[in-house]
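Example 4.3 (complexes with small molecules)
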Amino acid sequence: MRLVLIGPPGAGKGTQAAILRNDLGIPHISTGDLFREHVSRRTPLGQDAQRYLDTGELVPDHVTGGMVRQRLAEPDAQRGFLLDGFPRTVRQAGELGAMLPDPDGGIDAVLEFTAPEDVVVGRLLSRGRADDTEQVIRHRQQIYRSQTAPLLAHYAARLLTIHAVGSAEQISERVLTALRERGLARAWPAL
Ligand code: AMP
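Answer. The structure with adenosine monophosphate bound is encoded below.
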């Protein structure tokens, strides 16, 4: 199963992907995690990406797209994936389609996580990652609204909107219910 997770920074995509990968048996691929790994290993890609991560800007498409293409070519991603943080623009959605064997039917569902802005900002401030200063958080929220939210219309036919306030378990149960209703996941617990 190929799933894309979309939501503002702080909506809990990473937390949900970490839970769902066990339930669904597919890898969690987070572009933010991949970039942070490159930064900490001081690879050339990490050195290119660092200033974008620090300021909350999007890393340029040619860097991001190549990294994702390479990750999706690995053996564990052949049976599906939970893609967290990519695509983040309509243009990246086009690139993703071109990476999959069947561009129109390649993605089974797009999970949109929704939560009020004060809730997501509060979560990020308490998380305390290097790019979780108030100014950078505000900038990332603004980029989400202007660049990433338009993707929701692009994926309208495959969109499953999940209310992302509550415990991590409550939210993952909502995801599994929504997938089951679409016929994408079998009955709990035999997923
Ligand atoms: P995240 O962990 O998803 O919050 O991403 C952290 C940072 O990584 C973002 O603020 C961007 O600088 C960068 N990033 C992650 N995914 C992408 C992407 N798809 N396109 C461009 N930049 C990205």
